[in-house]
Each structure stands twice: as structure tokens, then as C-alpha cells.
Amino acid sequence: MKVLYVNNQYRLGGAETVVQQLRRGFPDSQLAVADGKTFPAEVRPLYPRTLARLHHSRFHGLVERIAPRAQWTDRAFRRLVDAPCDLLHLHNFHGRYATVESLAYVAQRKPFVWTFHALWGVTGGCDHPRECRRYLDACGECPQLGRWPLGSHDDTAAQLALKLAHLAPLPLQVIAPSRWLAEIVRFSRVGRKWHVHHIPNAVDAAFVTQLEKTAPPDRKGITILIVNRNFRDEQKGFPIVQSALAEWASPRPHLLLAGENSDWARERLSGWSCESFGYVSDAATLAKLHRAADIFLFASPAENFPCVVLEAMAAGTCVVATPTGGVNEQLEDGVTGFLASEISGSALAEALHRALADESLRKRVGEAARLHAAREFSEAVFFERHRQLYSQVLDTWHAR
User: Fold this and answer.
1) Are 114 and 90 in contact, with CB atoms under 8 Å apart?
2) How far is CA 261 from the centre of its chain?
3) pLDDT (tens digit, 9 = 90+) per residue, 271-309?
């Protein structure tokens, strides 16, 4: 089965991790990528390689005037209907590299599956509405302005109207990694007619292999690992971490910070012993950090089914997390992790205190999480669920 995966980036966060896993599970697959500076030879860029390099240089303005990136990638995306593959599988899509109209055009002309890594597809443009429910009626006067992917101009009503006009009537095949997200999509105005399939993300087998290579080192004191795609992104929860640690009494655990702008985060945790590792892209380094950590602290205010939590579980690292989105499906409080009672710094601090108070319980929880991740979130199950869905989609397409 030849699948063409389409994503915004080649390597960045959870969506990219999932795509790389699927490419291993379906070795005849290919990957088309819209954004970035350079790509491996086997990747199909939607923007020419030479232009992509120049676009990320001091010649950006000139290249954008001569060959506007969004217009170029939109045309290239439409041409994917003629790609030599059985099925297109779309991942991150925010209307930046192709329009909603082009998405509808492709979905009507090629067997098509779309994995939702957030909720952009059914809202007026935000990834996580949080308490806002305007997307159930008509967006506008958006409280999310300024949070990526939204800018400062409020066009959310127009974005929602476009999706209602072009996407809502289609019988799209959508994958939701969490039941939480699946229910939101099913009951949204845009997604009511869609076929929504729940397929949880899986633990990357390459990461598990790295964990098995060496035994954990001897630890001195308690070490907490915090992995964040970008510490400056409020959506990823660093303000909640700051709040949770702000009035911590001695002794203070040692902190390991991994992610973009980790040096910036270290400077804002005064009084704490911190090591900063920057953005970590390889499984070996991440596995080493988990072997050095007693606790994995996750503080995002809004998430789908985060791969970093699955990796911590697979490592047997005790997870302390905010009760957001699909995290509630990944962890059972006091059994496979420690969940805060609410999304706040004080609640997260209380959950962290519970994890630190009882070493034997903390170790039991970490081991239970490791076994649960191996049983419920294996790549073998993940691949088989996708294989079954692909076959179902193709059978339905050819029976039209």
C-alpha cells in the first residue's frame, strides 16, 4: 500500500514524530513537506529546495516577492491528486501552505485521511478553544487572538464560514488520537458528517530501543525532567511550571530542561539548579535524559494526546501532569501517573508534592506506566489500526 503523507514540517513536534513512525510502518510510503529550509533526499518538498533555502536567508523578501511561498505550495498541494500513491494522509494543516478550498478539492479527488493533532479543522482558526465555545455557533470576537496559529487580526468568523462551506459537507475520514478530541469533532458544526476514527498515538520504537541500551545511572537527589517544544510558547505551559515552582521550599529537586529556548527558561527559574539542553531531536539523547530523571513534569494547559507523555511512560519515569485533553486518557491518577486536580500552578505543585512524598509509590507508578504504555500504545497496534482504516477508506472509495 503506497501512502503519501503530507505535513507542514519535517521535524518539529508530536505530529512529526507520528509521521516518522507511520513511514516506518508503511515502508512504501512517501512524505511531502511544505515548510522548512532543508529536507532529506527522500522527502518531497512542496516548495523547491533551492527556493526553500533562500527563503530562510537574507534573501527572504526577494524570494517571497518573486515566488510567494503560500501560492506555490497551494498549487503543489492541489497537484497531489495526481501523485502515484493509493492514498493521501494529511497531518498538520493550518491553512498556511494551502487553502481550505484546496483541501476540499484534494479530498474529493483522492482517497484521503486527515489526522487531527489539534482542533484547527473545526474552529475559526485556533488550535485549542479551551473554555470558548464560539466555534459551535459562529466565531468572532475571539479570545485566542495572538496565540498561534491565530494572528492579531480577527478573521475567525470568516475562517469558520469557509470550513462550513467547503469541508462540512464532505464525508471526510478523520483520525483523532484522543477520545476527547474525537467527541469535540463529532459534535462540532464543521465535523458532524465526518467519519471520526479513534487511533491513539504510539510510543516510538526507536525511543524504546535507546532505553534498553544501558541501565539508569545512580541518582543523587531527585531530578525532574521538563521537555517543551518551545518554552516561550505559553500554550506549552511554562507559566504553569513557573507558578508551581515559585514558592517551593527546600530541598529543591534538580531540573533538566529540554526544548527550544530552554536557556531562556532556566534564567526565569532563579534559585533552582537547572541544566539546559536546548531542542532535543534524537531518541538517544532524550532516552538519556529520562534515565537521569525521577519525575517527568508536564504542564500544558491544552493538548491532544502528547507523544512526550507516552515517551515518559515508556521510560518508566513517573509523570506529573495537568489534566488536559487526552492526557486524562493516558494517565490514571495515582496508578500510572499523578494528575493535578485542575490546570493551575498550585494544583500542579500539589500533585508534584504527592509524587515526591513517597518514593516507593513513585517507583510503582512509573513501572505501572511503563507496562501500560507497552501494552496499550505499541507501534504494532498503531500500525495495524492504520492499515485497517486505509483498507476501509480505499474499499469505500472504489465502491463509489
Assistant:
1) yes
2) 18
3) 899 999 999 988 889 999 998 999 999 999 999 999 999
Looking at 270-320, list the stretches that DSSP marks H as alpha helix, in order from N- to C-terminal side: 283-291, 307-315
* Collapsed DSSP state (helix, strand, coil) of residue 100: helix
Which residue's C-alpha cell is 494572528? 151
CB within 8 Å of 12: residues ≥ 6 apart = 229
Topology annotation, domain 205-376: Rossmann fold (3.40.50)
d(CA 157, CA 159): 5
205-376 has the same fold as 3-202+379-398:
yes
Q: Is 156 helix (H, G, I), strand (E, B) or coil?
A: helix
Tens-place pLDDT, residues 110-131 = 999 999 999 999 999 999 998 8
- Cα distance between the two ends of the chain: 20
Name the CATH architecture for the domain at 3-202+379-398.
3-Layer(aba) Sandwich (3.40)
pTM: 0.92
Q: Are 105 and 151 in contact (CB under 8 A)?
A: no
Q: How far apart are CA 166 and CA 190, in angstroms?
A: 9
Q: Quick count: other Cβ atoms within 10 Å of Cβ 108? A: 13
Q: Is the peptide bond before 149 cis (omega within 30 degrees of 0)?
A: yes
Long-range contacts of 40-47 (CB under 8 A, 24+ apart): 40/10, 43/10, 44/4, 46/72, 46/73, 46/76, 46/77, 46/97, 47/72, 47/73, 47/76
The domain limits of the chain are 3-202+379-398, 205-376
- Cα-based distances in Å from 61 to 51, 54, 71, 234, 315: 12, 10, 15, 29, 45
Classify the phi-psi angles of 141: left when phi > 0, otherwise alpha if psi is within -120 to 50, otherwise beta. left
Phi-psi region of 79 (alpha: psi -120 to 50; beta: other; left: phi over 0): alpha
